[in-house]
Amino acid sequence: MVKAKKFIIKKNFNGFPEETDVQIEEEYLPTLQDGEFLCESLYISVDPYQRCYAQKVGDVALGILIARVIESKNPKYLVGNHVVVDYGWKTYHIHNGAPSMWGIPPIIIDENLDVPLSYFLGVLGHTGLSAYFGLLRICRPKPGETVIVSGAAGAVGSIAGQIAKIKGCKVLGVVGTNEKGLWITKELGFDGYINYKTENVSQALDVLAPEGIDCYFDNVGGTISSQILKHMKVYGRIAVCGSISNYNDTEETKIPAFQITLIFKQLKMEGFLLTQYVEELDEGMNDLARWIKEGKLKSKETITKGFENTFKAFTDMLKGINFGKAVVEL
Prior knowledge:
This protein is of the alpha/beta class. It contains eight helices and 15 strands. InterPro entries: ADH-like_C, ADH_N_2, ER, GroES-like_sf, MDR_fam, NAD(P)-bd_dom_sf, PTGR1.
């Protein structure tokens, strides 16, 4: 029998997650039944969205993983296959191939793409695909337009900004440190950055984008987004991917009203989930893989080693310590 470790929710998060909110438990997995396969976890993704979903005490902490199939009684998932799978923070898991809570079954990784496996949690995974569909389906940037991305040094934002550059746009990023700002401009090709901790976002945009913003890819929400909306051009488009500035609030956040701006500038503002684009995932992954091969798209990972350090990697990500995609390597 295989002994697995798992992080379970010991206490519901109230504000910023605390180490005492989770605990590691062990369990012995049963013998495989027909249609099942045994997964060995290799990489765990830690992401802001995990903070949004209410979990019950005793639940396994949410998470998407890269796993290796080590035993199988399912003809679709063969021993040796690497899969992107959603079963939470566990070292081993028995799966039957059913779709996850988002309607996506375990995805067999195409080994011919010749990229690190961890990329399938980031630039070729749910974060890269969120950037791809949010930017291209909602913002629909045109060559020569000005695009701004908040959370620009994060997993989704760093990819969204690079895709906008590929599409011929001027791209600005909002970040929390000058080090991150230099990374997105010098390494990723962004045209400018705003450090929201040391600069007034609205005043900075007067200088960086005096003619206004055409597209906004929003990862953070809050007052930063309220300031950016004032600088949108008429008929501007906003893709709302996340609101990380509010995830750990214990009271309802008060931000300036922006509805008048939406009305008079006739803006399009739309939230989205990756599940909307399940039928188009192959298209997105093929484009992202091609851009990587052509050297147009770069990926940076912050890798934490050791299953026991998964919770620390999660809270470090929420604090904005990571550059690019935050991943745990087991």
